Every structure is written in structure tokens, then in C-alpha cells.
Amino acid sequence: MEKIKELYETYKVYVTRENIERLSLGIIVLSALWVFLSSIPFRGVLTLDKGAIRYDGSIVRGKMNGQGTVTFENGDTYKGNFVNGTFSGHGTFTAKAGWKYEGEFVNGQPEGQGTLTTEQNVVYKGTFKQGIYQNAN
User: Which residues cross the membrane (predicted)?
Assistant: First the structure.
């Protein structure tokens, strides 16, 4: 306790309202800068799930945002747009098994107009909803 009293006595001359206000203003300015700068996209590489997933592309606040490519451990790839870490917008998912979907994605699923090409080169072109082809007769 004596050490704390001694420390206070040494530095009490600096503990003024004006200095506390300056410190508070400095903290506010630094916080605002951090929020602003962290929302600027940058190009980088993320490795997820202990290396099973590798992302190379635009990153905002530590998440996949914008254009990029994901490569999965099993050899599947997705190249296209991301929003908050999920496939959203136009992209191409290519499975190592040989099939491919190119078109619109919403929340990680084919949604909207797209083309699915199977391993046997059968082509399904049209509307997809929640990953399911809608133009079947």
C-alpha cells in the first residue's frame, strides 16, 4: 500500500482534468481510426480448419469479402464473390469429382441463374433455389 501512495504522490501533479480529457480524446481518436482502417479491404491468405481450407483473396475485418478463391482439402474449389465469409454473388464451384456449378450464390448455396455440369457432361441451365435446380420437367 505504501508503494501505491508513493506512486500517487510522485505523479499526482499530472493527474489533472485537462490531462484526463486529452487522454480520453486520444483513445476516442485511436478507436475511430481502428474502426475505419479495419474496414478497408486488403488482399491476403487465410488458412482455416487447421489447414483444410485455404482462402486467397480480399479480406475485410478478418473475413472473406469480395473476390477470392477457396481451395478445400479434398480438392474442391470455389472462385468468385464472398460476403462475410460465405459464397454470395457470382462464382464457380468446381468439385474434384468432376462436376461444376457456375452462377449466382446466396448464403453459400446456388440461388438464381446458373449452370450445373455433371461428371457425365449433362448440363442443367436455368434457375436454382437453395441449391436445387428448378427447371425440371
Answer: 23-46
